[in-house]
UniProtKB/TrEMBL annotation:
Name of the featured protein: 3-hydroxyisobutyryl-CoA hydrolase
Catalytic reaction annotation: 3-hydroxy-2-methylpropanoyl-CoA + H2O = 3-hydroxy-2-methylpropanoate + CoA + H(+)
Pfam annotation, one family: ECH_2
Domain Enoyl-CoA hydratase/isomerase: 24-366
GO molecular function: 3-hydroxyisobutyryl-CoA hydrolase activity; isomerase activity
Any one annotated GO CC term: cytosol
Gene Ontology biological process terms from the UniProt entry: L-valine catabolic process
Keywords: Hydrolase, Isomerase
Enzyme nomenclature, EC number: 3.1.2.4
Native source organism of the sequence: Luteibacter anthropi
SUPFAM superfamilies with a match to the protein in the record: ClpP/crotonase
Length: 390
């Protein structure tokens, strides 16, 4: 128990010993008041411990979860990024990599996400409640991804002037029938069943079964073989999985494919905004697009076009460059201001119209600020992957 007035760690770590002596590492995001939003400190702590557990032969698997009943992780540190963007612009700097906080935050976050994708041991992510943005970044690379009856997943970055990052460009680009583009443009919410259909989760389990599942983890005879352990874990989870009702993403798949057909973003955006469906989910989606940043829509589109055939590490390297530009001169600061700082919900987007945010406008966001070979994520490799990204 912490002493009175002590500050709890933003990530809690524990190890539990299974019956055969193998241990299970459990990492709990511990900031429920901010819906476990991922801060730089949290990402650094997770990186350090994940590295230690990877090197420990007696750790059979790792569990990643969030504290509280509301969220696994609702995103990243928008307040910290806002302060860094404000200070950067007030300084008059022109080098997009000179915002030290943003540069470090995105590097550490993307490295951690890539680490989970390429982790040598099974990773069980229990994605209960809200899982958005940076939360999907943590969850998406886990080898075993669980959602519950209260899970709500989304990439809502268009509302704050960013784009679906944390590998989202690659994840969404691989969905069939333009489903990923629709999610990136509209920030549409997915329930558990839809999250599985969108390949962002693997099993739906009842939240009430979490403690039982964890107890079964301790009674399992884990081996020294990671592949065998991955199968054991999959069998355990599959035995308790439930089939959820198809959500609106599945029910409207054909309609989404029609809305997002073609290769011209302006036409796609206009078609979605002109849709007359009275379905509440579709209406919310088109309203979100209409109120969102036109620049974010363009970047989401261009990134998915480029990421479709990219290896995972290249996706993160590309996103890192674009994110630095977004922090330096895009709509990101204005979107956070309108949503979280002044809370007027009246952002002044620049460009203000979709036709102004054309492909030529977006080209500068892909320009690296370093010489060849000096990218901060140049050393990322995909020699070992938990789940195929191609």
């Amino acid at each position: 128990m912490n002493a009175p007035g002590a500050i709890e760690s933003p990530v809690l770590f524990e190890e539990r010993t299974a019956n055969n002596g193998k241990r299970i590492g459990i990492a709990t995001l511990n900031a429920p008041k901010t819906l476990n939003g991922l801060s730089l400190d949290m990402a650094l702590l997770l990186t350090e411990r994940f590295d230690a557990w990877a090197a420990d032969e007696d750790i059979a698997l790792v569990v990643l979860q969030g504290a509280g009943e509301k969220a696994f992780c609702a995103g990243g540190d928008l307040h910290g990024l806002y302060r860094s963007m404000r200070d950067y612009r007030e300084s008059g700097a022109s080098d997009v990599s000179s915002n030290a906080y943003a540069a470090q935050f995105f590097e550490v976050e993307y490295r951690l996400d890539h680490r989970i994708h390429t982790y040598p041991k099974p990773v069980l992510c229990w994605g209960h409640g809200i899982v958005m943005g940076g939360g999907i970044g943590l969850m998406s690379g886990a080898s075993h991804r669980v959602v519950t009856e209260r899970s709500k997943l989304a990439f809502p970055e268009i509302t704050v002037g960013l784009y679906p990052d944390v590998g989202g460009s690659g994840l969404l680009s691989r969905l069939p029938d333009h489903g990923g583009l629709f999610l990136g443009l509209t920030g549409a919410l997915l329930n558990a069943s839809d999250a599985i259909a969108a390949k962002l989760a693997d099993w739906q389990l009842a939240e009430a079964d979490r403690d039982t599942v964890y107890a079964e983890l301790l009674s399992t005879a884990w081996k020294d073989d990671e592949a065998v352990n991955a199968t054991l874990l999959a069998d355990l989870l599959g035995g308790r999985a439930v089939a959820g009702e198809p959500g609106p993403f599945q029910r409207h798949a054909g309609h989404i494919a029609t809305l997002c057909s073609g290769n011209d973003l302006d036409t796609i955006v206009a078609t979605i905004r002109a849709d007359t469906s009275d379905d509440p989910w579709l209406k919310t989606a088109r309203d979100t697009l209409a109120a969102g940043s036109p620049g974010s829509a363009r970047l989401a589109f261009e990134l998915q076009q480029r990421a479709r055939q990219m290896p995972l590490a290249d996706v993160f390297r590309m996103e890192y460059i674009v994110s630095l530009h977004c922090a330096a001169h895009g709509d990101f600061q204005e979107g956070i201001r309108a949503l979280l700082i002044d809370k007027d919900r009246s952002p002044h987007w620049n460009p203000s119209a979709q036709k102004e945010a054309d492909a030529r406008w977006s080209e500068g966001f892909f320009k690296a600020p370093w010489a060849d070979g000096t990218h901060p994520l140049a050393d990322l490799t995909d020699t070992v992957t938990q789940r195929t990204f191609a």
